[in-house]
Amino acid sequence: MSENLNQVYSTSTPAPKTHIGVRVGAELVGTYFVCVILFIVGTLGQVLYGANTLLIAVATAAAYGIVSAILGKLSGAHYNPAVTVAALFTAKITWLDALLYVIAQLIGAIAAAATVVGILPSSTSIPDKTWLTYVVNGFDKGSASNSILAQTEISFNITMAIVVELIASIVVIAAAIRTLRVDGEPKPNHSLVMGIAYGIGAAVTFPITGAGMNPARSTGIALIAQNKGLTQYPLQQLWIFWVCPLLAAAIVSLVVILLNMLKIAQTSKAI
Amino acid sequence: MSENLNQVYSTSTPAPKTHIGVRVGAELVGTYFVCVILFIVGTLGQVLYGANTLLIAVATAAAYGIVSAILGKLSGAHYNPAVTVAALFTAKITWLDALLYVIAQLIGAIAAAATVVGILPSSTSIPDKTWLTYVVNGFDKGSASNSILAQTEISFNITMAIVVELIASIVVIAAAIRTLRVDGEPKPNHSLVMGIAYGIGAAVTFPITGAGMNPARSTGIALIAQNKGLTQYPLQQLWIFWVCPLLAAAIVSLVVILLNMLKIAQTSKAI
Amino acid sequence: MSENLNQVYSTSTPAPKTHIGVRVGAELVGTYFVCVILFIVGTLGQVLYGANTLLIAVATAAAYGIVSAILGKLSGAHYNPAVTVAALFTAKITWLDALLYVIAQLIGAIAAAATVVGILPSSTSIPDKTWLTYVVNGFDKGSASNSILAQTEISFNITMAIVVELIASIVVIAAAIRTLRVDGEPKPNHSLVMGIAYGIGAAVTFPITGAGMNPARSTGIALIAQNKGLTQYPLQQLWIFWVCPLLAAAIVSLVVILLNMLKIAQTSKAI
Amino acid sequence: MSENLNQVYSTSTPAPKTHIGVRVGAELVGTYFVCVILFIVGTLGQVLYGANTLLIAVATAAAYGIVSAILGKLSGAHYNPAVTVAALFTAKITWLDALLYVIAQLIGAIAAAATVVGILPSSTSIPDKTWLTYVVNGFDKGSASNSILAQTEISFNITMAIVVELIASIVVIAAAIRTLRVDGEPKPNHSLVMGIAYGIGAAVTFPITGAGMNPARSTGIALIAQNKGLTQYPLQQLWIFWVCPLLAAAIVSLVVILLNMLKIAQTSKAI
Fold first, then answer.
1. Average pLDDT for residues B164-187, to the nearest whole number?
2. Contact C59/B203, CB-based, under 8 Å?
3. What pLDDT band is residue B244 in, cutting at 50, 70 and 90?
4. Which of A185, B123, B153, C258 would staple C123 via disulfide (CB 3.0–4.6 Å)?
5. Cα(B131)–Cα(B120) distance, integer angstroms
6. Which residues of A104-125 are buried (b: 16+ CB within 10 A; e: fewer)?
């Protein structure tokens, strides 16, 4: 049995073909590009031509998909601390590499937010606050739909935010675990499946939270938007956008480990 | 000839590689995730930002596609009683498994409806009825377009509902039979083809019926929305959304069996 | 040289694996489903929720793509007389089969138009004419944008119609020839490429002509809509929607034959 | 070391299987079709039915993707001087061929612009200027959003234009280098990846610059639209749309060469 338990994890031994410096660099650059695309479309694209869930969903799908397709072979295309944690739990990456990946992802996302907020023009009629409404992750007064809901008596509360972020994150993490090989390399269908997972996740979460599903993305924009006069300080609600994706990573990893144990148990019986 | 007839069904012998408990569990979880996505996008996504056929079509495609891509290998990715019945008719699944699958699908869909209706905020200005307009399947006063049509003298009657649901269901069932192997396992193109089949089916049916094509989906939301003050009790019209998909399953299965018989007849002649 | 010329056509010898009755039946059923989807989305989808080029483009892509994916192996997935003519010119199908294909396509398209027009509800406020505005192919007073343009001093004339229909048809026919094998069977990428070709063609042509690119589709709806009170009799402008796709078939076939001749000439020289 | 440096470039030796005349012709025809589609959708599609970032993004993706899928094997599917320059820097094409490719691309793009502007109807209510607003590449008064921004106190300045064009072009060029083989032939995933790269690039750049990313496309329409009464002469701002894509080509090529050197260094050490 203890041997069987070992086997559950023996799917490990990640083969670090690429130099760790290149891999961490690829995570930083990849996360930067994913986030810079999401932040530009979520500000310029949404404010001028009207909020559009479908545009956000399609752009989110394309952003993660194309960057994974281009850089994926270098680092395994995580670009998301929750994906890295799930890869760690399922033994596709080592502790040290995971730590470096997450740091690189955060730097990439913060740099992306700084780039976009840095070039946004602001004036009295369109202040920073307006541009940032749909791109910051939040709920209640921080919800992407807050201005629309202001005319009603309802708001999108923390429970709704947790439910949709958890559902969307489970889909994203499950898609990642399903399309990364045992050694952490992406399978051929990786970028397409990841793109669609993030896209449908964005369609589900956008009206409520502005579409998080990625703690690096949420942290990057929250830090840079903190003092831009938003109705709700984004850093105050940021913890939700770490807890839900990480919880999703834990749930998915547990299911995967249990399924692997079951498979081994069945095989042993067969022998 | 009797041997030939046998051969028509000899495409059977499904190889139940995965434990039946895992398979039924995968159907339950898969149907839950498909439906929870459809119900969130069909309520929050439609009401706040305006009814949008394209959003529903793309989200429906992505929902079925991504869940099939993630969980498909475990159960064959049915998530729809009509698909299970067609798989039964074409001998890709046994009677007992089919029964368990359908029960799992219904539980998954009802749980999804309960989740979404449970978190929807309601008030005097946006009552439950408003949120549920586009997500409940129906016709006439239960049609997704009923509020728009109220200003005209027309309505979308039962004939229209039957025609569009039958057409869309035939496409979905045919896509499923075409992309499931003889042993019930999905082919590599399964999730992409199924996604597109459901997506175009949603574009065709949404303005009239709110896009059914799946008795589990229709039943789940109808049960939970029954006492939410809708103009039309959804359970009263639910039978349509069982009859059309099941009729489609019968038609497609019949065509497949006839084509197989013809192929065998030709082969015999050749010999 | 005469032998070389022969070789240009020696890419012929189509292998009619499937019974001609099945193939012609598949063309009829396939064209019916493609057209019934296009006609429903082009009437119900467009009129109630506002004309939407993107919806038409995506639905056109999905309609041709999914039917090709499901039925393609049976008949080669033409569903379009211009594709059949191009297949004839490039020797992928025989004269007799081509004739039967075109007849089957026309019957399928007319049946589809009859189905959709048959179920459309009409009233004083939404007469048949309103439903049919965006789905009939035409130009000038028959243009899909005619009602919008009525408030300006311009119209979309026959030259514009010819240019866009020719461009879109060349893309569609070239995609078909490129993804059908020498024996007329579809290559693995056939349905995806065809879907995208028809989709972008619809985006290009819809605002002007209502997106033709397929004489069977144009004829089916023109016949059924002829006496429905449209500002412009559709049958009067129908010839354009035969000439452009057939001209495109001739142009593409000529280029393919010339490229094949050049390849053979090069190979001969090499020897 | 000098040998290693050689190896960096030894990925060269492009195998010119297809006759240079055919290849250059394919670039001309391919660029013509890509641009004619972009220009029609960017004028007729945008003006009549409202500016729509998603339509532009999807149409851009489909235009590049479908033409690459149809003609790609003939020339490597560049259709963009910046892609050709990057292919030159990474030794996938020779100097002479690159020069001929760029000339062919420019001729194709200019012909496409002439075709579309030639058929556009103009009147007092919809002058040429209106049709061309969203299709010409520019910034400040030449920005696609200029008319919307006129009611605010802000404008989209040259810095914003450079940032978004550079980001989008890097994605496009990296996608091209990643999906073209050492000998310049497209890999099987080429057209899909290129389509998505251009699509997301269009979503990012459209509201600011009208979506350039391709000097041939920008030059073609700028030349033909120069004297059409636009608020901003397009040729005055054209240099940006050459500098950014070419800079992107240089950056991506440098990274690729450095990564190749690193790989060789690692391999040498291993031996």
1. 96
2. yes
3. very high
4. B153
5. 8
6. bbbbbbbbbbbbbbebbbbeee
Q: What is the chain B residue with the closest CA to A52?
A: B49
Indicate which CATH number applies to the domain containing A54: 1.20.1080.10
Candidate from B148, B197, B206 with C-beta closest to C66:
B197
Q: Which of D159, D171, D207 sits opposite A119 (nearest CB)?
A: D159
The C-alpha atoms of residue D170 and residue D244 are separated, in whole angstroms, by 9
The helix/strand/coil state of B186 is: strand
ipTM of the complex: 0.93
Neighbours of chain B (3+ CB pairs under 8 A): A, C
| Most distant pair of Cα atoms in chain A: their distance | 75
For chain A, say whether D28 makes contact (Cβ under 8 Å): no
Q: Is the pLDDT of residue B6 over 70?
A: no
Which chains share 3+ C-beta pairs under 8 angstroms with D? A, C
Q: What is the Rg, in whole angstroms, of the alpha carbon atoms belonging to chain D?
A: 19
Q: Which residues pair with A198 in a beta bridge?
A: none
Residue of D nearest to C145 (CA): D48
Q: How far is CA A189 from its chain centroid? A: 19
* Crossing angle for the helix pair C20-40 and B190-209, to the nearest 10 degrees: 50
Nearest to B262 among C19, C71, C119 (CB): C19
Nearest residue to B51 via CA among B264, B207, B240, B236: B207
Is residue A262 within 8 angstroms of chain B, CB to CB?
yes
Q: How far is D112 from chain A (nearest CA, A)?
A: 27
Among candidates D94, D68, D90, D70, which has minimal Cα distance to D79?
D68
Q: Nearest chain A residue to D151 by CA: give it.
A: A125
pLDDT of residue B14: 44
Residue C211 forms contact with D (CB below 8 Å): no
- Residue span of the structural domain in which B9 resides: 2-270
DSSP 8-class letter at D228: S
Task: Tell me which chains share at least 3 CB pairs under 8 Å with chain A.
Answer: B, D
Whether A208 contacts chain B with CB within 8 A:
yes
Contacts of B171 in chain C (CB under 8 A): 33, 37, 66-67, 70
Per-residue pLDDT of A165-193, as tens digits, reads: 999 999 999 999 999 998 899 999 999 99
Average pLDDT, chain A: 90
Inter-chain touch B200–C66, beta carbons under 8 Å: yes
Residue of A49, A54, A179 to mutate, testing the B interface (most B Cβ within 10 Å of its Cβ): A54
Of residues A130 and D25, more confidently modeled? D25
Q: How many domains does chain C have?
A: 1
Q: Give the list of residues 6+ apart from residue B171 with CB closer than 8 angstroms, or none.
A: B197, B200, B201, C33, C37, C66, C67, C70
Which stretches of chain C score pLDDT less than 50?
A: 1-16
Give percent above pLDDT 70 in chain A.
Answer: 93
Q: Do C53 and D49 touch (CB under 8 A)?
A: yes
Tell me, what's the pLDDT at C16? 47
Candidate from B59, B66, B119 with C-beta closest to A160: B119
Q: Across the interface, do A123 and D154 touch by the CB < 8 Å criterion?
A: yes
**Mean predicted confidence (pLDDT) in A110-115:** 98
Cβ burial D80-98 (10 Å sphere, 16+ → b, else e): bbbbbbbbbbbbbbbeebb
A111 to chain B, closest Cα gap in Å: 31
Digit-by-digit pLDDT tens for chain D (271 residues) are 344 444 444 444 444 468 899 999 999 999 999 999 999 999 988 888 777 899 999 999 999 999 999 999 999 999 999 999 999 999 999 999 999 999 999 999 999 999 999 999 887 778 888 899 899 999 999 999 888 887 778 889 999 999 999 999 999 999 999 999 988 999 999 999 999 999 999 999 999 999 999 999 999 999 999 999 898 999 999 999 999 999 999 999 999 999 999 888 877 776 5
